[in-house]
Fold this protein.
Amino acid sequence: MLLVGVAPDDDESTVRKLAGKIIDMRVFADEAGKMNLSLVDIKGQALIVSQFTLFADMSRGRRPSLLKAGDPARAAQIYESFVQQFRDRGIDTKIGSFGADMQVSIENDGPVTLVLSTDDWMTRV
């Protein structure tokens, strides 16, 4: 399950880097129980849901500011491109409806939830 938010400065380069990193991340257990397998290795599936509220700024007041989220029309294109990266790698990928009010249930098997951001990648990649 991937909740994906798009920032105003995200582009195709961001999409390729982030999708590639996620697809190849070794976060699934091998036969020894060690996180050593990728989504490709386990022939896993992905559910990718757009989530602009990941950019909610709660630093002031009590109501979230969503000004840091990308423009919806452009964000939809970036989101679709992100999804296509998974499909191009042969991963069975389901999606939510971009911009829709959806009810999504997540059953998390294990103690691992990861947050990835490309904000600081420019200095490290």
Summary: The domain at 2-102 is CATH 3.50.80.10 (D-tyrosyl-trna(Tyr) Deacylase; Chain: A;).
